[in-house]
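User: Predict the structure for this protein chain, please.
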Amino acid sequence: MSYRSGEKFTILTVCTGNICRSPAAERLFRSAFGDEVSVTSAGTGALVGEPIHGPMADLLRDIDVDVEDFAAKILTEEIIGQADLVLPMTREHRGAVVELVPGAVKRTFTLREFARLVSKVDRAELEQATGPEPTPASRLAALVTLAGRHRTPVEPELDDVVDPFRRELSVYQESFDQILPAARTIARASLNL
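Assistant: Here is the predicted structure, written as structure tokens:
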């Protein structure tokens, strides 16, 4: 998919079970963007129909992010095709997305990778790319292109979000502590904060 001005921009977050990492990122983005941007999530091995897993839901609730009315769903070509930006939680997930839809490669970044690249984009360059009346959607569309220009190889641990599923609460916190600042960096750049 290619974003067109005036349309709603769509972000897709991806993990394995679609009950911990990707729904956390989805709900953080929904909280930041409201109705300005459409956000959804899916899993490569989704526990279809399940809610956000308890420990991750608790971490979201602690910062007043809504966790209700969530049901895990499986990643499909159609879901990827509808997304303007795909943010998997690991390089492995990114590979799965691109394997399903090779044409999505230029709009698919791990969550942490995209946040890192967004922080390298020059504000003047972003303003020039978004035109006279920028919106969160037009900023996100420009950031996909501009961030792609800054891609360089890094260590996998800088790109991947740790999987907390069925592990200690401290691992859920570690995972959340990787997701939250990345989501905030992307939201701030898109909302011009």
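The chain is about 50% helix and 10% strand.
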